[in-house]
Amino acid sequence: MADLTSNFLGISSPNPFWLASAPPTDKAYNVERAFEAGWGGVVWKTLGSEGPPVVNVNGPRYGAIYGHDRHLIGLNNIELITDRDLYVNLKEITEVKKRWPDRALIVSLMVPCDEESWKAILPLVEETGADGIELNFGCPHGMSERGMGAAVGQVPEYIQMVTEWCKKYYSKPVIVKLTPNITDVRYPARAAKAGGADAVSLINTINSIVEVDLDNFAPVPTIDGKGSHGGYCGPAVKPIAMNMVAEIARDVETAGLPISGIGGITTWRDAAEFISLGCGNVQVCTAAMTYGFKVVQEMITGLSDWMDEKGINSIDEFMGRAVPNVTDWKYLNLNYVTKAKINQDLCIECGRCHIACEDTSHQAITNMVDGKRHFEVIDEECVGCNLCVNVCPVDDCITMEPIAGMDPRTGKPIDPEYANWTTHPNNPSANTEAAE
Amino acid sequence: MSDRQPLSRDVQSARLSAAEYDENFSDLHAPLDWHEAKVEAERCYFCYDAPCMTACPTSIDIPLFIRQISADNPTGSAKTILNQNIMGGMCARVCPTETLCEEVCVREVAEGKPVKIGQLQRYATDHFMESKRPHPFTRKAETGKKVAIVGAGPAGMSCAHHLAREGHDVTVFEARNKPGGLNEFGIASYKSTENFAQREIEFLLEIGGIEIKTGQRLGEEIALDQLTSDYDAVFLGLGLKNTNRLNLEGENAPGCEDAIDYIAALRQAEDKSILSVGRNVVVIGGGMTAIDIAIQTKLLGAENVTICYRRGQDAMNASLYEQELAQTHGVKIMHWRQPNSIKLNEQGEVCGLEVETTSDASGKLSGTGEMQIIQADQIFKAIGQKFDSTLLSDHQVELEQGRIKVSDTRQTSHQKIWAGGDCIVGGEDLTVVAVEDGKIAAQHINSVLQG
Ligand SMILES: Cc1cc2nc3c(=O)[nH]c(=O)nc-3n(C[C@H](O)[C@H](O)[C@H](O)COP(=O)(O)OP(=O)(O)OC[C@H]3O[C@@H](n4cnc5c(N)ncnc54)[C@H](O)[C@@H]3O)c2cc1C
Ligand SMILES: Cc1cc2nc3c(=O)[nH]c(=O)nc-3n(C[C@H](O)[C@H](O)[C@H](O)COP(=O)(O)O)c2cc1C
Ligand code: SF4
Ligand code: SF4
Ligand code: SF4
């Protein structure tokens, strides 16, 4: 059986699945249930400074979007950081860490953006025996209006500054959690590294309005007739999160900076994808909030079985394996020519490929042949875009097949050599020497 | 006489408790609730040039109406359905979808599980009718043209609605005391519950411009000549009448009954316990009527119900689904049996049916000489119906194969007379086909009347 042990930043945990800082990690009761269910670690729900805790709304705080059969694919929330007393949290953290020494326990923090506040809280956290801290620079609602959370995460200088304070007043690993609500995630990541961060974790939730109630004309969740933007998470955000992870993983300035992947991770496969894009471990929130802590059992067994099948022995062995294959568009091989091919034995003749290509692409799929309903790709028209593959309801029914020799669409021979846009004759700024 | 058998005969009413009758004659399929409808609707692929739509005799835009359900617009969905088929509610209940739209659904082809088109159609139309919304269509300005329709069955009423929509004045002459035709008097009771046929007629009349005159029988109270002179056009939706005869001795004895008449009585009986049913019932025939009478006598408490059909399973007019439905209700289907003689008791009442095994090995159906007597307290004849051609005996309207001959536009040989439904030649004897006939005729009548 594959070894799932994770050693992220020297913090060991029996598997790479941590619960992200959120309601599932709000208190000892939840965290201990999570550990019993098998989670490798948790990032405790974000703590604030000493004093009266924040308050949450008392109306609904979640909204959702659904796929078929009310399958939850996106969740949005307007919850704040912990609304429990700081000392209660610290006491519970201390006790839980003592009882579960083999699990990772990270404390998430968000305090005002001044050195004093950080200096005050960090020794208290140090005392708990927790394995590290995560700086919540991501919360997009409620806290950012108070100059914390995303308000800090959107300003690289602040990130660097706060990270430096933390490294100064705290001895264990410091993880900086990034907000996706920025234009280029590489800048905050670079700032975190410059500040001495041991790792970045991403993504936090995305600013969102998930629904408008068309009876009351107000965003959902609606509180007494009004709604506010919330933070979006769950399966729907995974593609956005993976892109951001990959951007950091392949940026020369942050190359090698450990990454904890977060955003829509629901199954072992999602986790494996994040890890292959350079994450040392992963964090999960919505999947646990949707299905309960038991989902980790599917993740653990799935990852282990897949690794066994692939002959991969440890997480490190495949971590980052996909990073070299993430490239810029301009480097993609323009001499790689594919054509869609329909497997007639699998085709159920729904006609979706035809109408998608006919109405919105390249008129490259028939719907009638010799007076009979029949769907066939016309190679002379097919540009190989893949749309038909994506809309076909049958698995593996349409495949994209690379071709060589002559391209029936252009009538020109296909150059077997790699060539990209940087050297293409149509590119005004092409490197003409290479084009020769 | 030698064929008078000393068998005891058991025919009784009130075989069951009130609760059992209620249970037995409730909806065959419970209607889908909102969530079920949504989940089912989401199974639809929104096919291009959808095969289901081509298979629907009324060409309902099935992918569109299903998509409207999944997009939370059941009202719009119902309008899509009703625009093509004003009796979409009844058709959702009675169409043999397994041989129409659902048979060709790509998901039937792919996985043997079609999208439940009929149930979704029922969901949308029920939603519309139950929400008591205003009628979905408005009548065009009155044209002053008058059309007579004979027969208030699905063909006649569909024609009436389309003509009224175009602004014509429609008078429907109906022989019975109630409109609806076989929707009211024929369809199995577990398919059309809670007085649906009458509710649908009321809904259809909301368009305005339609008057129904009941108790008006063509050939008695009214004459075709009169109608063609008093009205601008006439549509005949007369359906069928006489059940074919067995031509056996004893056919008129107590206990040998016409399935259609019995079903009509059953459909009209509020209290099913008044219906007398035999302990042993034998049904002769292989179509929808045979299945329906068999199942419904079983539901009335008959102990043994046997359908005798003279050919093999493949030749049965009832779909495989209908046959299975009968079997799951405990009906026994005997193939390759033809009636040979009716057995009567001392009192001259039916007590058995002698059947002969048949074969088509020689290429032609014939008896093998092997006989068998099936105990029967009641024998139901369900061997098809005929058109009552005496109604048109003055030959103003040409017939073919005993039914009315029509063109593609459902116009008869008489320039002012159109016809549709079961009474025309080549019909499939389905509600939905009758509805389509009425619609096609109305479209042509309208174009003729508008000049
Ligand atoms: C027992 C049974 C079960 C069936 N089950 C199904 C089913 O499940 N699904 C399905 O699709 N189809 C079914 N059918 C067939 C379906 O009912 C018919 O195809 C359909 O009703 C035909 O419609 P129509 O308007 O042509 O005739 P009808 O429904 O027969 O209507 C004819 C109307 O004309 C009236 N009429 C007749 N003569 C005169 C006259 N001289 N003057 C005035 N009025 C007259 C009649 O009283 C009647 O109201 C079934 C039929 C039977 C008999
Ligand atoms: C209700 C809710 C509350 C959250 N609170 C916090 C928080 O206090 N601190 C924090 O760093 N992230 C918080 N998050 C963000 C999650 O930790 C995580 O980054 C995000 O949900 C994406 O992961 P997912 O797609 O697995 O849910 C919260 C998320 C949710 C749904
Ligand atoms: S790959 Fe694109 S162009 Fe080719 S058939 Fe499919 S949809 Fe059409
Ligand atoms: S989308 Fe797929 S199943 Fe449908 S017609 Fe095209 S190839 Fe066949
Ligand atoms: S054939 Fe089936 S899947 Fe396709 S549109 Fe019709 S109901 Fe939907």
β content of chain B, as a range? 15-25%
Note poorly predicted spans of chain A: none
| Rg over C-alpha atoms of chain A, rounded to the nearest angstrom | 25 Å
How many angstroms does the end-to-end distance of chain A come to?
A: 53 Å
Per CATH, the superfamily of the largest domain in chain A is: Aldolase class I
In CATH, the topology of the largest domain in chain A is named TIM Barrel
CATH topology description of the largest domain in chain B: FAD/NAD(P)-binding domain
Based on the structure, what is the oligomeric state of the protein chains? heterodimer
Low-confidence stretches of chain B: none
Organism (chain B): Maritalea mobilis
Protein name (chain B): dihydrouracil dehydrogenase (NAD(+))
GO molecular function, one term (chain B): dihydropyrimidine dehydrogenase (NAD+) activity
Subunit structure (chain B): Heterotetramer of 2 PreA and 2 PreT subunits.
What topology does this entry show?
The complex is a heterodimer of chains A (436) and B (451).
Chain A: E1 6-8, E2 11-13, E3 17-19, H1 28-37, E4 41-47, E5 62-66, E6 72-77, H2 86-99, E7 104-109, H3 115-128, E8 132-136, H4 150-153, H5 156-169, E9 174-177, H6 186-194, E10 199-202, E11 206-208, E12 211-213, E13 218-220, E14 230-233, H7 238-249, E15 259-262, H8 268-276, E16 279-284, H9 286-291, H10 295-310, H11 315-318, E17 337-342, H12 352-360, E18 368-369, E19 372-373, H13 387-391, E20 398-403, E21 406-407, E22 412-413, H14 432-435
Parallel strand pairs in A: 3-4, 3-16, 4-7, 7-8, 8-9, 9-10, 10-15, 15-16
Antiparallel strand pairs in A: 1-2, 5-6, 6-14, 11-14, 12-13, 17-20, 18-19, 21-22
Helix pairs in contact in A: 2-3, 3-5, 5-6, 8-10
Chain B: E1 11-12, H1 18-24, H2 34-41, H3 51-55, H4 62-70, H5 74-84, H6 88-94, H7 101-104, H8 106-111, H9 117-130, E2 146-150, H10 154-165, E3 169-174, H11 182-185, H12 196-205, E4 210-214, H13 224-230, E5 233-236, E6 256-258, H14 259-268, E7 277-278, E8 280-284, H15 288-299, E9 304-308, H16 320-328, E10 332-334, E11 337-344, E12 350-359, E13 366-375, E14 378-381, E15 399-400, E16 403-404, E17 417-419, H17 431-449
Parallel strand pairs in B: 2-3, 2-5, 3-4, 5-17, 6-14, 8-9, 8-14, 9-10
Antiparallel strand pairs in B: 1-7, 11-12, 12-13, 15-16
The structure holds flavin-adenine dinucleotide (FAD), flavin mononucleotide and iron/sulfur cluster (3 copies).
